[in-house]
Amino acid sequence: MINAISRSYIVNVHLCFETFLKEICNEIKNFGNNVYQEKLQEDSWLKCAVKNIVNEKLSQDNQALFDLCEYYRLVRNTAVHDLCDVKSHEKGFRKLHNYNLKRDPRFARLIAPNEYEKISFDDFVMFSRSCVELATYLYNLVLYDYIKIINEIPQSQIARWKKYKPERCKKAIFAYINTSFRIDKDLESQISYLVDYVMAR
């Protein structure tokens, strides 16, 4: 029963994590600074996000988190799909032997990761922490094309901004983008150009 409950927790965490990944991939596709690489059928949403945000170049620490999340995704698949190959997660589990996870303060006190048949509450904790860390890391590296964002703003809003003085217009555009997107240092350096772009529309 403990094993089954722990797996159900992993299923729920995976649902939240995958929802975030789909949303961030969609945001990159529509507003990203780089050319979006479509998700391949055999790829997970995590792999798609990593491919588009960091070009599959992760530090060793983040690669460990990636492999943990991928392993627990396979655990989730086996738990949810009756027809899933029970051994599909074994390769993912073996990959985790490449890391000394006990040295990581986030995981030092956990008795995890475990094989599918021995999944415990500690696996749920490990997966949850890995998802939060990796999601935060990836989200903070997303680069936006602010012109694409401006082009999606309704014309009625643009018309209001055109009536503002330049300084007030800067603040209004900044606040508007900041409401729906994570802003980065590039926005401040581009804000004057964005004001000129808005005025020219």
Explain what you see.
By secondary structure, this protein is mostly helical. Helix content is 65%, strand content 0%. The protein is built from nine helices and no strands.
Characteristics:
201 residues, mainly alpha, 9 helices
Short description:
With 201 residues, this protein is mainly α. It has helices at 2-31, 45-54, 60-80, 90-95, 121-139, 146-151, 155-162, 166-180, 185-200.
Tally of separate helices: 9
Radius of gyration: 21 Å
Can you tell me the overall shape? elongated
Question: Share of helix among residues?
Answer: 55-70%
Tell me the total number of β-strands.
Answer: 0
Unreliable spans are none
User: Quick check: average pLDDT?
Assistant: 92
Task: Indicate the structural class.
Answer: mainly alpha
- From the N-terminal CA to the C-terminal CA, the straight-line distance is 62 Å
* Main sheet specs: none
The percentage of residues in β strands lies in under 5%
Write down the secondary-structure element order. HHHHHHHHH
How do the helices and strands line up, and which of them pair or pack?
Elements: H1 2-31, H2 45-54, H3 60-80, H4 90-95, H5 121-139, H6 146-151, H7 155-162, H8 166-180, H9 185-200
Helix pairs in contact: 1-2, 1-3, 1-5, 3-5, 8-9
